[in-house]
Fold this protein.
Amino acid sequence: MPLQIQSDGQTVTAYLAGEIDHHEAVSMRQAIDAQLMGGDVKLLVMDFTDVTFMDSSGIGLVMGRYRQIRYNEGELHIVNPSPHIYKVMRIAGLERLAVIHKTTPARRELP
Amino acid sequence: MMQKSVNQTKITLLSRSVNEGYARVAVAAFAAQFDPTVEELGDIKTAVSEAVTNCIVHAYGNTIGPIYITVDLFEDKRVRIKIRDKGCGIENVAKAMEPLYTTGGAERSGLGFSVMQSFTDSLRVRSTPGKGTTVTMEKVIKTR
Ligand SMILES: Nc1ncnc2c1ncn2[C@@H]1O[C@H](COP(=O)(O)OP(=O)(O)O)[C@@H](O)[C@H]1O
Ligand SMILES: [Mg+2]
């Protein structure tokens, strides 16, 4: 399972896992976008704790979701990127678009 | 002056997206004999992933074709990675290498070449429209 998603209608938290490349990003995008439809979501949290690799396809994944959440006038938060992933994110200046938490907030019980 | 490599591997794979992971891991495993740091290995994996993904997404598009990877190791702990396709080629290489430039639509960031550039020590792109593209990257592994 490449990711798990929690939603209460206003906040969507996506726990991403594994390697984010062009091959893997497709299913991650579809799973997250299914939760963003409707426009009520004001906060998207992308949790990178269990992500072991990311290339610029991951930047595309984050930027695309950022555009959607901004359209809802909401915010994007990024949790716990590894040093490697943070290095990739900085090339896109994602740290200026999203709030980046370097530590994981207590993880809620997943269904 | 042309220096001779002390070790070499060649990998040929089809432009199927499932091979992106295999390609970067294979190149990193070969470069591991220079005892790179975790960060240096991550840099190599990321740069290879970008170049191979470009062959799959842009060079061949909806068709499937071969991707040729050659990795050379030099005595001065230099790793040279050459990634070649026989796809559509690039009309204007300088323009393609500009940050954020993409022909790939909304889900592509246009930052693949920027990532290759900042994660390696040198990047060279040669392309002939209709014939294909060769990306050559070099990374020097620091002696610890
Ligand atoms: N191997 C290739 N064959 C044909 N076109 C390529 C190739 N590599 C890159 N390109 C072109 O260069 C552009 C920029 O590539 P890149 O920086 O990796 O961004 P992205 O892959 O997100 O589009 C691509 O959109 C494409 O037009
Ligand atoms: Mg690319």
